Amino acid sequence: MKTVTLYTTETCPYCRNAKSLLASRGVRMKEINIHTQEGKRDEMVSRSGRRTVPQIFIEDIYIGGFDDLAKLDRKGGLMSLLS
């Protein structure tokens, strides 16, 4: 299964929702906290073009935020991207 990278903050409810959804699917996650890891906010903006969290990637495929992840999962696309 591919690794999912999440750019997050500790206070973001959408970040918690994204982690919960991925955990419920048994997905391995690499969490990058943009508040505690220097330079990671700039990295996130460079990769996604967005300044809000979470920003989610499956390997090098940009998924978007939590709403995008949830929509992909509802349509059955999440697990196929991960395999």
TrEMBL record:
Domain Glutaredoxin: from-to ranges: 4-60
Keywords, sorted A to Z: Cytoplasm, Disulfide bond, Electron transport, Redox-active center, Transport
Hydrolase recorded as keyword: no
Annotated InterPro entries: GLR_AS, Glutaredoxin, Glutaredoxin_subgr, GRX_bact, Thioredoxin-like_sf
Family as reported in the entry's similarity comment: Belongs to the glutaredoxin family.
Physiological role: Has a glutathione-disulfide oxidoreductase activity in the presence of NADPH and glutathione reductase. Reduces low molecular weight disulfides and proteins.
Protein name from the UniProt record: Glutaredoxin
UniProt organism field: Pseudomonas hormoni
Gene name as annotated: grxC
